[in-house]
Structure formats: structure tokens, C-alpha cells
Amino acid sequence: MTPKTSLANSILDLNQITQPIIGEICHQVAFSYGDELLLDFGEMTAYNHPKLSHLRKGSWQLSTRATPWYLMLKKGVSWSSSMLVNNENTVEFAKIQLQCLENTKLTNFVTLANSNEMKLILSFEGDLNYELILEPDLEDDSGLAYWELMMPNEQILIVGPGQFWECKSIHEPY
Q1: Of all helices (H) and strands (E), which one includes residue 95?
Q2: Which residues make Cβ contacts (< 8 Å) with residue 38, sequence separation at least 6?
Q3: How many domains does the chain have?
Q4: Mean of the pLDDT values across residues 75-103?
Q5: Rounded mean pLDDT of 132-150?
Q6: 68 preceded by cis ω (within 30°)?
Q7: FRET pair for 5, CA 20 to 30 Å: which of 12, 71, 93, 96?
Q8: Sequence-separated contacts (24+) of 89-93 with Cβ below 8 Å
Q9: Domain of 140?
Q10: What is the three-class DSSP state of 58?
Q11: Is residue 160 a part of any domain in this protein?
């Protein structure tokens, strides 16, 4: 089993691991379990399981775990997941706001961290230069990862809980 690595000591290593996703196209934005944001990048293929074969997944899959997100535009306008909490149709409304990311090229994927906060910033090509920012609550004691990135090389990058991350084979126990 791969040991977890402290984010403060290895932010450069973490960002180096994620560099190959830059330049990939975001083909699909979806939600699972209500508020978990999922983004599919790269080549889209069918799932292997027969009951899921009608669904498609990206060669890169980013999934969040109850992590607040913000969609920023070049001009400073933003939508955030917290704006949607009291909305009766939260998932549908959020998906409409995030559809602008579909079929756009990822131009940056970077994790920033210091002792008080952590952010994942995804920048997208286009006239409005969208940025999707994930900002986990470091005080959250749920024990869940903040985000996971499934990679085409059968590796998974798991960030959180706390300021720790690990990159391991998808075949290793969770």
C-alpha cells in the first residue's frame, strides 16, 4: 500500500503528476450522489460492465467528494455550489451552470496549499476563460477524500482528507 504524502512537502510532485491532463477536452459534466461533481476528460469509452455499457467515461475522470466549488469567469463573475444549497432543483441548476465547461480544453490543473487552505484550480480555454475552483473544508472530519483523479495509466490520485495525497494503482485496496 502506498503511504500518504503531506501536501506541504510535495506540492510540486502532486502538480507534476497532474500535468498530462492539461490539453485534454472536458467532454462531460455530471453529478453523482446529489452533490458530487464529476468531470470526464480525454477519450470517451463505454464502461466495461454490461449494465453500464450505455454510459461513457473519459480516460481521465475527476470526482469530488462534498467539496465546495466555484465557477469563475474572466470578468470576476462567479457561481458557487453554496449558491445552490436552497435551490429545489440543485443538481439540474448546477449542471446548467457547468455545461459551459463541456467540449472545452483544459489549460491548467494546479493544486495550491498552505497551512490554512487548499485549492484545486482548473482553467479552461475560451472567450470567457472559465476557472473551476475546488476549495475543501480542511476542518471536515468525514474522512472522505476531497477529490480523486482516475488516470488512463490505471492510477488514481486521491487528495484528502486533510493535507495529504496518494497516487496508487486502481488495483490496490482503497
Answers
A1: helix 90-98
A2: 28, 29, 30, 31, 32, 61, 62, 63, 64
A3: 1
A4: 63
A5: 89
A6: no
A7: 71
A8: 90/34, 90/35, 91/31, 91/34, 91/35
A9: 5-169
A10: strand
A11: yes
Report pTM.
0.85
In a domain, 174, yes or no: no
**Interval 20-33 mean pLDDT:** 91
* Residues 92-114, mean pLDDT to the nearest whole number: 86
Grid coordinates of 145: 477524500
How many angstroms separate the CA atoms of 12 and 9, rounded?
8
Q: Kindly tell me if the per-residue pLDDT of 168 is higher than 70.
A: yes
Place of cell 480523486: 148
Chain-centroid distance, C-alpha 122 = 8
Using an 8 Å Cβ cutoff, are 134 and 147 in contact? yes
Partnered with residue 133 across adjacent β-strands are 70, 121
Residue 88 pLDDT > 60: no
Task: Return the amino acid letter for 158.
Answer: I
> Edge-to-edge strands of the sheet including 56-64?
5-6, 164-169, 155-159, 147-150, 56-64, 36-46, 25-32, 104-113, 118-124, 131-134, 69-72, 78-80
Whether residue 74 lies inside any domain: the answer is yes
Q: What one-character-per-residue DSSP string does 97-119 give?
A: HHGGGTTEEEEEEEEEE-SS-EE
